[in-house]
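To fix ideas, we reproduce below one chain and its tokenised fold.
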Amino acid sequence: MLIGDRLPSLDIAGTVTVRSEATYLEVLLAQATKGTALRELALARGVPTGQVAAIGDNPNDLDMITAAGLGVAVGGGHPEVRAAADVVARACADGAVAQVVELAFQRNAWS
């Protein structure tokens, strides 16, 4: 295998594999995903996941944005992430995070 070659698919028991780029392969314990972290943090803080917003751009963010009450993909993010998101925000350079904060306030009727 050469640098830049497409990485092979892996099936390792007890793990989840995700690609954040064509040449990046992440192998995580099944319980150590961004979505698991989001749910555990929300539970520890007593916040319903329906009141949590998450923003992502690559496939390693998919379970996190689907676990959140407001799952947001950034403009220009991976097509699979944009398709799974509740909302597609502006590009990062155009203020995506600020837009997500504003949306979270609107959806939760915070002032």
Remarks:
- The radius of gyration is 15 Å.
- The chain has a mean pLDDT of 87.
- The CA atoms of residues 3 and 23 lie 8 Å apart.
- The domain at 33-107 is CATH 3.40.50.1000 (Rossmann fold).
